[in-house]
Amino acid sequence: MTPNEVGSDPASRAEALRAEIAHHNERYHTLDDPEISDADYDALVRELRRIEADHPELADESSPTQQVGGAINTTFSSVTHRVAMMSLDNAMDGDELRAWADRVVKGLDGETPTFVCELKFDGLAISLRYEEGRFVQAATRGDGRMGEDVTANVATIADVPDQLVAGQGVDAVPSVFEMRGEVYMTRSSFDQLNARAIEAGEKAFVNPRNSAAGSLRQKDPSVTASRKLSFWGYQLGEVVGGPEFTSHVAALEYAAALGFRINDHLRSFATIEEVAAHCAYWQEHRHDLDYEIDGVVVKVDGTAQRDRLGVTSRAPRWAIAFKFPPEERTTKLLDIMVSVGRTGRATPFAVLEPVFVGGSTVGMATLHNQDQVAVKDVRPGDTVVVRKAGDVIPEVVGPVLSLRPADSEPWVFPTHCPRCANPLVRPDGEADTRCVAPDCPAQRDQKIAYFASRGAMDIEGLGEQMVEKLTASDLVHDPADLYSLTVEQLVELERIGPTSARNLVAEIEVSKARPLPKLLTALGVRHLGPAASLALTNEFHTLDAIMSKSVEELAAVEGVGEVIANTIVTWFSQEANRAYIERLRSAGVGFGDPQAAAAAAAARATIPQTLEGRAVVVTGTLAGYNREAAEEAITSRGGKSPGSVSKKTFAVVVGDSPGASKLTKAESLGVPILDEAGFEHLLATGDLP
Q1: Which residues are catalytic?
Q2: Would you state the pLDDT for residue 660?
Q3: Does pTM top 0.70 for this prediction?
Q4: What domains can you pick out in the chain, each with its CATH number?
Q5: Cβ atoms of 102 and 162 closer than 8 Å
Q6: HSE on the CB side for 467, CA within 13 Å?
């Protein structure tokens, strides 16, 4: 049927329209790959609205027409995790697993821990928060510090309890209880979802993992509810008013008593060889389950031992993910093309005959750089081996030489930019070839797309295709131009309807309030990524303060260093970049929190700055301070409180159950080690006792 063809059966047509609209919502909002224009989409919704108005008995509260105006395009609000949701380091084989176990034993001064193994579910990590036993919030992992608020969607998952109830040995529900775990879609639910899609004439979904993630990020919770998602709990977050747990297994048993689903394949082992055998078993039997797994997570069971082992900046030392081997498939290499990024880097990539590998359909794969293409000697027309390991970008491993066409010729890297036709340059000693033309449209477009990306200003709906439309129409020349776009300008573009235009303008407006680390990342200063941007914000609070600092002052910030500091100062010293910053200011983009800067200055004025410029590391438990209070005591006196020991560390303060690695590092570097009394003396005088 055409969009305007109602037909003789309103009920069937309404059902078909709802399925079709749901399909297009998925293509647009989850996959960012729409199949129809916004105008055609709006026509489908209008037709459905007319049918429901003419036939009230067909009204359905889950219908797309019942969504609150514009809600489907609203960005999820952010949630700050009270306890960081960290990543896991990986072991790709038995040797790497045993090497991790050796590091654990060494970190525990020779003690061999009990190991706990859990299946590594292929879904989406979620943190569930309960207050006085009531479910109040669900958040994605995000960047580990901040995630997306998906409470309404997670509330539709039957496995997630609405209320925690004491019982089975639990006397009282904690005042705060956070359960971390995985939202996933079973294979059977995925098959049913695909069967419904095929029956409705829609394209099948790719895999359970992507379907679960896309379903959880739906703006309409009724869509999430229809997807039949599931949840396993596997780790506690913040707990207030609960018991002290001596082991991970005890913590999960407690969570199960409160009503959470804990996977029944949790196992404990005394030796790493037993762990390795367990991993090998599940590698062989991974497809026996009704849900996807891509490895086994191995953890130290004892809580005190975990505290002694500590964490790195991104992952706990007491856990590791044993990843199953990457999947490989062969397919036809149709062409080799070159893309130009925001820094001018020219990157070759393979255009493939689509192939299902590593859990998704792959149509393109990276070839890394000019040298890699030459080393692998892959050519258009080759049958090639494609590898996709987890979420890593697919890559071409190499050609199947026995299937190479007789008339094959080596592929030659282009000498000129495919977008601006200027010469490509490869500096001596570098692997990358670059377009150095300052007016290259490819670089311009990629800079704007990077500015709008999720890790930067997070402007939904502003992907590469939209950016190319905006620049081709001469509406946008750099990211600052985005803030002057109007609905009237956008509707003049091809395939942009009024609804999409209003939504995009609204998303751009919302982005003005993004936190300063997002803006710093979005500027695209070379080497300045999210971690350094956050460190600079925590230290200086506003963009103006950062712009005013010298290389030495910036380099002194933990996590920044001289290389990044130099690029920052150089970037801000350029007149064009300064003008760009002022245009962002004039547009109303937030430049940080002046009140926080003022508060920090006021604190420095009233508290003696005994630790000015000094880094003091605290490890273990202090009687007079919790971790936050100890850090505040240091930073309020002008010092820094990094999470690791380095040559720049002035002193290490040691409490009960300190991290063994920090002590070892301090001793090897000759860094002074203080007890709590020495810490008090240092705070008061700035001198070592």
Answers
A1: 120
A2: 64
A3: no
A4: 10-73 (1.10.287.610), 90-185+229-323 (3.30.470.30), 330-425 (2.40.50.140), 440-511 (1.10.150.20), 516-602 (1.10.150.20), 607-685 (3.40.50.10190)
A5: no
A6: 22
